[in-house]
């Protein structure tokens, strides 16, 4: 019996300034599809969100998108997904995305990506779930964040176990290996 797996990807609704961010998003979408892991994401067709979804679709992958009504025009809601859900609020969006995933991957992004990541990290820290959280640190994008987490631990505002709740990887190949281990 095949076990159906889904991976939630948080990422920017903008492409960022480096081509490597878009390349990483496309490679992530292709990798998920190659392993028949469903992409769960914010349902946008712009920025890295659009890149990861289009790549997953082009490779024959399943896509599950969730977008709140108020962001539909701004993020250009991508209706041609395997599953397309429109929510009333951002809170509902985040909950639906998380509840439909077995693991979380964070690609480069802005405040929204940080909000999503810190919410699931906090939930894990307080024992609400055990889902793995991966950060794809393309060209060191997330290094300042990882340093901030180390600083929070050093300053006594978080337990050292917080560091182990995020697995940072530098390439899609490393992400693939880590996801295989986590989803086995």
Give a written overview of the molecule.
- The chain has helices at about 20-35, 45-60, 90-100, 110-125, 145-155, 170-184; strands at about 5-10, 35-40, 65-70, 85, 105, 135, 165-170.
- The chain starts with a strand and ends with a helix.
- It has a 7-stranded parallel β-sheet with strand order 4-3-2-1-5-6-7.
- The protein is globular.
- With about 180 residues, it is an alpha/beta fold.
- The model has no long low-confidence stretch (mean pLDDT about 95).
- α1 (about 20-35) links the parallel β1 and β2.
- The protein contains 6 helices and 7 strands.
Return Rg in Å: 15 Å
Q: Care to count the β-strands?
A: 7
Helix content: 40-55%
String of helices and strands: EHEHEEHEHEHEH
Strand order, sheet with most strands: 4-3-2-1-5-6-7
The number of helices is 6
Shape: globular
The largest β sheet comes out as: 7 strands, parallel
Low-confidence stretches: none
What structural class should be given to the helix and strand makeup? alpha/beta
Strand content: 15-25%
Intertermini distance: 13 Å
Average pLDDT, all residues: 95
Family: Belongs to the LOG family.
EC number: 3.2.2.n1
Pfam families: Lysine_decarbox
Keywords: Cytokinin biosynthesis, Hydrolase
